[in-house]
């Protein structure tokens, strides 16, 4: 991996190189769970949601070489959301519907993709990036440092309680939390900057 966000080639641009396995792995780790959860939220069975997520990644692989960054044309994940949405609609219209899927889901997915549904997808993307980045940076910290961050910043425990549980001073918990949050923020910003790009032709 290259260093700072401003000098690192965009993750999506790196996907132009099919041999860049690190880029494809990073892309898959972020987007596969995101699309899978979207499909599950629409009532797709586990296996069907996996099929949808896999097909979305295959569609991206087939089109990403034509992609060039242009913020005026929309974001990359906006394009990816439309692919996922259209694949799910196609899945249902062909009759390959999970028992939990019904006409209401189909109608809901056919509304304007700039609607609340698209914004919900954006929020899910941010959550997925957070979880992915947290998992990525965790090995850089000792377990007490990580737990000081996780228990206070994510779980919501009070600093005093966590300090007592970890046998740390209150000040040490604040310092540990700050260290992790700074590194986490850098990693999240790097990924989001790498994918805030324009759409690929469908």
Order of helices and strands: HHHHHHHHH
Percent strand: under 5%
Alpha carbon gap, first and last residue: 29 Å
| Category from helices, strands and their pairing | mainly alpha
Give me the Rg, rounded.
20 Å
The number of strands is 0
- Share of helix among residues? 55-70%
Kindly describe this structure.
It is a single chain. Residues 1-9 and 197-202 have low confidence and may be disordered. The protein is elongated. Helices cover 68% and strands 0% of the residues. It is an all-alpha fold. The chain contains nine helices and no strands. It has a domain at 11-140.
State the gist of this model.
With 202 residues, the chain is mainly alpha-helical. The protein is built from nine helices and no strands.
Features:
disordered C terminus, 0% strand, mainly alpha, 202 residues
Helix and strand layout, with pairings?
Elements: H1 11-14, H2 21-41, H3 46-63, H4 76-93, H5 103-109, H6 116-137, H7 143-155, H8 159-166, H9 170-195
Helix pairs in contact: 2-3, 2-6, 3-4, 6-9, 7-8, 7-9, 8-9
């Amino acid at each position: 991996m290259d260093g700072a966000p401003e000098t690192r080639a965009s993750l999506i641009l790196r996907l132009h190189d099919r041999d860049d396995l690190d880029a494809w792995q990073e892309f898959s780790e972020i987007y596969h769970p995101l699309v899978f959860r979207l499909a599950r939220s629409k009532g797709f069975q586990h296996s069907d949601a996996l099929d949808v997520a896999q097909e979305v990644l295959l569609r991206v692989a087939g089109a990403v070489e034509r992609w060039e960054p242009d913020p005026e044309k929309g974001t990359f994940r906006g394009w990816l959301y439309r692919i996922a949405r259209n694949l799910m609609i196609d899945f249902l219209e062909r009759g390959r519907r999970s028992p939990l899927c019904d006409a209401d889901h189909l109608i809901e997915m056919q509304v304007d993709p700039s609607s609340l549904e698209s914004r919900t997808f954006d929020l899910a993307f941010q959550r997925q990036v957070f979880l992915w980045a947290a998992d990525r940076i965790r090995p850089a910290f000792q377990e007490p440092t990580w737990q000081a961050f996780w228990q206070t910043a994510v779980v919501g425990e009070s600093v005093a309680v966590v300090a007592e549980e970890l046998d740390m001073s209150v000040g040490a918990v604040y310092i540990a939390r700050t260290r992790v949050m700074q590194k986490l923020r850098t990693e999240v910003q790097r990924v989001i900057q790498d994918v805030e790009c324009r759409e690929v032709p469908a």
